[in-house]
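Quick one:
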Amino acid sequence: MIRTLSKLRHAALALAVTAGAMFPQMATAETGEDHPEVARFPGAVIKDYDFREYEEAQLILSTPKDGKDGVVADKLLPVEGRVTYIHYETPRTTSALQVFRNYQSSLKRSGFKELFVCERPCGGRNLSAYRSLMKSRDLYLNGSKDAQYIAAQRGNTYVSMWVDEMGEPNVFLFVVEKQALDENRMGVTGASPMAKALNDAGKVDVYGFRFDTGKAVLRSESKATLGELATVLNDNPSLKIEIIGHTDNVGDETANQTLSEARAQAVAAALGEQHGIDAGRLAVSGQGASQPLADNKNEAGRAKNRRVEIVALSSPPPAANNTRTTTTQAKPAAQTPTPTPANQGENTRSPVDDANAIINAANKLKGLFGH
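Output:
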């Protein structure tokens, strides 16, 4: 009978592991997931989770103590960027010291440098008293028994972590990825048609820049259009643009390419000379006759193809129907490199993450049948 029960237990465990492999979504019922740069203590379970794309945080770098107006610390390190908060509950069979020492060792092996370590008992107060020091908003911090704290850094990644005892060891982990604020989330502001087009589509074809045939000198009737573009740039001080010249197909291909570049340069120069726009915000290029919008067989089509295109380089991505392609590399104005948009929203979850999730599921199910 005992052997039969043992076989049933092993069969059930094998089935649980197989099910976890077949159905990864069963691997966890937790809210949130581990931060990729800080490993989870074996058997720990996520109880609370919070992530902010940009928020302030503060690392404690000296032992917290009571002050006149609450808890204080002599040394604090403010950091802003992506902030991930994870509250873990670890198995009852472990101790707060065991968990803390393992995290301390794991961080060192991962290349983190310790900035400050506060051994137990650290501070002597309930962890909730340290919220203001850590700028942790209303995130859950609790417990005081055997409290230990570590602050560590690797490059632009900062770790701030408490471990204490509340029936079982609890871990309160903050990971801050220091970075500058993206100030362009609100898009291009302004009521002019040019501003609205840049905000909605990320680009606009402009026909108000006037040139003599075969020339790259702005005529006086271009003043209003130039002023409108300058207003857009002044209203959006973080906006950078690319100015792209286009011609019809009349004449030599090489000459048209050179002319389109020169006209774009003329617009950039006028923005700087007449409106004080920093050249570092202006990239210029020419496409010649390579990107026509209409048939060049008639004057109406050729007139539509002769244009200056303005493209927002630091604004919301263009609408889905924007199919503009650049056949030659943009030439920057005043030797300023053409900004390259950053990669967006890449999935950073790896096969190792999936495997860990399956193992966690198997461990949980194994607990149902004993060890």
